[in-house]
Specification:
alpha+beta; two-stranded antiparallel ribbon; flat
């Protein structure tokens, strides 16, 4: 009812050398927060990711590993992809979604509405910190309800503007 600028906070990665900070945006009060929550389940159904090796969460990983035979010649590896969510380009991701919706023969008005939602969500590219509004030039920061579904580019180029009250 009373939208506010998303806020940003830093979470320290204690498991990494040098303890880098992961920036996470709190979208709870953001104008497009509810739209993002509506978009996420719809896009998962109407334009699912093509890779069958996607994971929902750690429980999903454990369940899939329990069903996987591990032979003596196998080696387990843990891959840490640097800034996974924050490095996928928004424009290209929109094209992938549009192509997938077309391939799945989605009703054209529904397709257009979902792409409009996507545009609205991904253009919400600002957050507040210490009485300043930071405008991100590309993509969105981690923390959006769509993060696990539609990854975004890294927060690098921000323009600082004073908050007008």
């Amino acid at each position: 009812m009373n939208p506010t600028a998303p806020t940003i906070k830093g979470l320290i990665k204690l498991h990494k050398p040098g303890h880098p900070i992961r920036l996470v945006v709190n979208w709870k009060g953001a104008p497009s927060y509810k739209l993002a929550h509506l978009f996420t389940p719809k896009i998962k159904i109407m334009a699912p990711l093509p890779n069958t090796h996607n994971l929902e969460n750690i429980r999903d990983l454990i369940r899939k590993l329990e069903d996987t035979p591990i032979l003596p010649q196998f080696a387990l590896a843990s891959l840490d992809i640097s800034n996974l969510y924050t490095n996928v380009p928004v424009k290209e991701t929109r094209e992938i979604i549009a192509n997938t919706l077309k391939k799945n023969q989605t009703n054209p008005p529904v397709e257009q509405e979902l792409l409009n939602w996507y545009n609205t969500i991904t253009k919400q590219n600002y957050f507040s910190n210490k009485d300043k509004i930071l405008i991100q030039q590309d993509g969105l920061a981690m923390g959006a309800p769509t993060s696990g579904t539609i990854p975004f580019k890294q927060t690098q180029n921000c323009q600082i503007l004073p908050i007008r009250r």
